Amino acid sequence: ECYVQNTAREYAKIYAAEAEPLEGFGEVPEIIPVFLVHRPANNIPYATVEEELVGEFVKYSVRDGKEVNFLRRDSEAGQKCCTFQHWVYEKTSGSLLVTDLQGVGMKLTDVGIATLAKGYKGFKGNCSISFIEQFRALHQCNKYCEMLGLKSLRTTHQKQRKATSVKSKNLPNSSTINKTVPKKAREPRDFISSEH
């Protein structure tokens, strides 16, 4: 938990350094630090400690990307959190995504990180790779994404889908397979459907 949140915190610091100087960007989300405390005299010898956040606690993004959260989409903090996700995704070439962003105002806590199956630069997150795929498919850029010069994920995702459909059109159909399969192997179980 500490490692994930503090790793995300380091990305947030770099994001802030790039975003804050931009005219009109304003305040940037901050991921608060979490510390591991050793308590040898206690039944539970380890605990995490972090700053208390006072105010309305809001989930700006969720781990699985399925929930539509209007505070995420419509609020300044929510839009900047989405931009932060997009920024991390682009900076890591789609290999890492900070997710489950939640907190009070611009102060965030208890975040998650999704990485590709083998991790990213030796780091493995605590969320499924499917969160990266869902983010890529569902993210809608906003004015803060534009201010940072981030590339639209819609066109990247559409290009990938188009390339996949073009590849499938070039696959041989079942009549082509019939011509190239030796007579002896022509039993129903040996045929490969062109729909697969």
From TrEMBL:
MF annotations from Gene Ontology: ATP binding; protein serine/threonine kinase activity
Q: One GO CC annotation, please?
A: basolateral plasma membrane
Q: What is its main location?
A: membrane
| Highest taxon of the lineage | Eukaryota
Enzyme kind, highest EC tier: transferase
Where does the Alpha-type protein kinase domain start and stop, copy by copy?
1-153
Region Disordered, residue ranges: 159-196
Q: From the UniProt record, list the reaction(s) this protein catalyses.
A: L-threonyl-[protein] + ATP = O-phospho-L-threonyl-[protein] + ADP + H(+); L-seryl-[protein] + ATP = O-phospho-L-seryl-[protein] + ADP + H(+)
Name its cellular compartments. Basolateral cell membrane
Question: Which spans does this entry mark as compositional bias, Basic and acidic residues?
Answer: 184-196
- Assigned EC number: 2.7.11.1
Name one matching Pfam family.
Alpha_kinase
Q: Which InterPro entries match?
A: a-kinase_dom, Kinase-like_dom_sf
Bias type Polar residues, positions: 165-179
What PROSITE patterns does the record point to?
ALPHA_KINASE
Residue ranges of coiled coil: none
Record keywords: Cell membrane, Disulfide bond, Immunoglobulin domain, Kinase, Membrane, Repeat, Serine/threonine-protein kinase, Transferase
Q: What does this protein do?
A: Protein kinase that recognizes phosphorylation sites in which the surrounding peptides have an alpha-helical conformation. Regulates cardiac development and cardiomyocyte differentiation by negatively regulating Wnt/beta-catenin signaling.
> Would you identify the family this protein belongs to, as annotated?
Belongs to the protein kinase superfamily. Alpha-type protein kinase family. ALPK subfamily.
The name this protein carries in UniProt is: Alpha-protein kinase 2
- Which organism is the protein's source? Sula dactylatra
